Amino acid sequence: MSELPETFDLLGVGIGPSNLSLAALTSGERGLSTVFLDSKDRFEWHPGLMLPDAQMQVHFLKDLVTPVDPTNPFSFLAFQVATKRLYRLLVTGRSKVPRREFEQYCQWVAAGLDNLRFGRRAENVEWDGSAFVVHTGEGVLQARNIVVGTGLAPRLPRSARGHDPEKVFHTDQLLRRPRDFAGKRVAVVGGGQSGAEVVNYLLGGEDRRPERILWGTRRSNLLPLDDSPFVDELYLPDYSHHFYALPEEERAETVERLRLTSDGISIPLLEDLYRRLYDLDLLEGRERSCRILLDHALEDLEETADGLVIGWRPTRGGEVVREAVDMVICATGYEHGMPDLLLGLKDRLAISDGLPVVRPDFSLQWDGPAEHRIYVQNAARREYGVADPNLSLLAWRSAVIANSLLGLRRYDTGSVSTALDWAGPGPQEAPDGPAGLALNTSY
Questions:
Q1: What is residue 332's DSSP assignment?
Q2: Both ends of the chain: CA-CA distance in Å?
Q3: What distance lies between CA 59 and its chain's CA centroid?
Q4: What are the protein's UniProt keywords (predicted)?
Q5: At 199, which helix (H) or strand (E)?
Q6: What does the pLDDT look like over 195-215, one tens digit per residue?
Q7: DSSP label at 50?
């Protein structure tokens, strides 16, 4: 953009995969002025956990645009062709690529869009009666609509807070600075994918291998991700429509019941980890290089002269297990909460159980004019279920937002072919009518 409009049609805050998807889908829309801001200097995707062997858990065609717009110039296949690697990818036989490659793809997309502004922090948002006013470190911007995609906040257990961040930290911080694990006693809290990736990483190199790993989880076992074919249909638009239409009291129970469809450990990682433990314990003669505590929850963490003493309470009763360690890595997930950027608008938002109410088009229910909307990305788990934070419906969600913003059905976001039937009609995208911008939509 060579000249900034007085008021943007859409201003996005946060440039992760979600808003990058929306930017890509709307990039060719005539008459639509958009800008996306991020405080980072360049696109990065969970840099603290970009482990060398980490793999994606979704098919590479579930990219930023392909499921709703396969001819879009910012597809993963277009990236593969542009970087002259498509044939080699096909030879690998992969359907799920390394996480580093997905980040490279996103960086390639970011380089091709001219409406992204990195190194610009949005500090707060206000409503002045006619537009949203976004305050940044470099001045004020105005927009008719905003979309917040700032991601989730790392969740630290209460007993893990307030300690030396060099010794007790979330997995989000693992690779953000050099760390020496060699010969140390390391505790890992959490039995999901991130916990397994961290343990596999620590065991994978002699130069970083701890003296001992204590890995604890409240789960009954290191349970696998359930991505079998029929279960995978939970990540189709039809099930998201169905979930939204469920009575509110059923949603939380359903999310918990379906937890392992998104929060389990991939089978290949479990196999690699088990083989690595076999080799270390039985072929190299190391004595229990990793002790795994199942059905144990983090109880407390105390600093002593011998280092940190971590306490684990058996979930089914019994004595607390205590052991001295040098470091504690918390693979304890992320929190779904009110985005900090929207706190200034909190009194104007409909709030339920501490969270804003999300409408079917991913806009928030508020008391302002219906033609001005506050969209959110990755903030509707309560309304849309386990698929919302997952990448599987990334392009679909952005397409729903784009349709609402444009006031027309630019993308087909309705029912798709499924093997399973979900009872009951799903919601419409925008029950109060889309924002309906007056755009030049002829081609």
A1: -
A2: 20
A3: 16
A4: FAD, Flavoprotein, Monooxygenase, NADP, Oxidoreductase
A5: helix 193-203
A6: 999 999 999 988 899 999 999
A7: -
Q: Taking residues 315-342, what's their average pLDDT?
A: 92
Task: Locate the DSSP E strands across 149-280.
Answer: 153-154, 168-170, 185-189, 212-216
Beta bridge partners of 98: 55
CA distance 61 to 64: 9
The pLDDT tens digits of the residues spanning 62-84 come to 999 999 999 999 999 999 999 99
376 beta partners: 148
Chain centre to alpha carbon of residue 128: 32
Residue at token pair 């599987």: 392
CA pseudo-torsion sign 124, 126, 131, 137: negative
- pLDDT tens per residue, range 242-253: 999 999 889 999
Sign of the CA dihedral 378, 383, 386, 387? negative
By the 10 Å C-beta count (0-12 exposed, 13-18 middle, 19+ buried), 385 is classed as buried
Distances (CA, A) of 336 to 126, 155, 357, 362, 409: 22, 9, 13, 15, 30
Pairing of strands 34-38, 8-13: parallel
- For the four alpha carbons of 22, 26, 27 and 28, in that order, the dihedral sign comes to positive
State the Cα–Cα distance between residues 338 and 346, nearest whole angstrom: 9
Report how far Cα 213 is from the mean position of its chain's Cα atoms: 27
